Every structure is written in structure tokens, then in C-alpha cells.
Amino acid sequence: MKAIVYILILFSSNNLFSQNSILKGRVFDGLSCKECGSPAVLLTLTDENGRTSSGQTDFDGNYKIENLQNGVYILVVMATGVREKVYENIRIDSGEQKFDFFYPEPCVKSLKRCPKNHTDNIIPISYGLPNKRTIRKAEKGKVKLGGCDPSLCEKWYCKTHNIGF
After folding, report:
1. Of the candidate ranges 10-14, 138-142, 144-148, the one whose mean pLDDT is the lowest
2. Of 46, 85, 87, 106, which is most buried with the most CB atoms under 10 A?
3. DSSP per-residue codes, 51-91
């Protein structure tokens, strides 16, 4: 009988302690002010069993997601008017985990070379509201219309592989 009580206590305490982990950090603005936080960013964690937990950044870009079970998560980050970012394999072990990052990520300069390692059949990407001249170029396949998303860093488009970079 004593063994059963010890097993029940051990099982109960294990369940209690497995849900007290916290993921917290700061989301920095990668476009305009790299020292500034990004407010109103939604963060959603999904574990291996499909359970979700979420949080939102405050005015300074700080966030805190509590009552997490230990395990591996996928973190989806999104904000109005910005392309979502997915981080895979976020490991929550125990206690408090810290994860700071830029969102949207800062743009890095890219060369006019496809990630598949060729330089032919590559055209520029044009963002914003296109004028008549840009529309004509797009119809002729000389430019790719990129839309109005300010977080997109791709400057070139490979027509062979249908990818921006």
C-alpha cells in the first residue's frame, strides 16, 4: 500500500512541476530601430501534441508565456501587416527560458545569384503600389511584383525556380 501512495505522489508532483515553465524575452524591431521593441506582436507556441499557448508583446516588445509543459515547441510570430515567422525546435526544459529575437528580421544584402547557384533568368522584385511602367515590365516578365509588405527583404526573383531571395 505504501508503494502505491509513493507512486501516486511521484506521479502527481511530476505533473505539477511539468507545467510551470515560462518562455519570456523581447522582440526587437528589425526594420526601423534595432534597439526598440516591437509592440503588439502575437506569439503562439504549439507543442508536439498540438496544444497551444500564446502571448503578446507589450509596448516595449517584452513577452511572457507561462504554464508550459517541458518539451519541444514550434513558435509562430505574427503582427498586422508583417509576414509571419516560424521558429522550430524551441526547447522548454524547466523553469524560465529566455528567447530574444528580431521581428521582422533585418534585411541582409543579397547578390544577384539564385540560391540554386546560377545567375541567369533572375529579375528584380518591385514592392509597393506599381505605376503603369512597372505593370508593363511585370507583364513582360522583366520585374516581379512583390506586394506591399514592408517586411520582405527579397530583392531578386529566380524565374527558373520560382523563389525570391
Report:
1. 10-14
2. 85
3. -EEEEE--TTSEEEEEEEPSEEEEEEEEETTEEEEEEEEEE
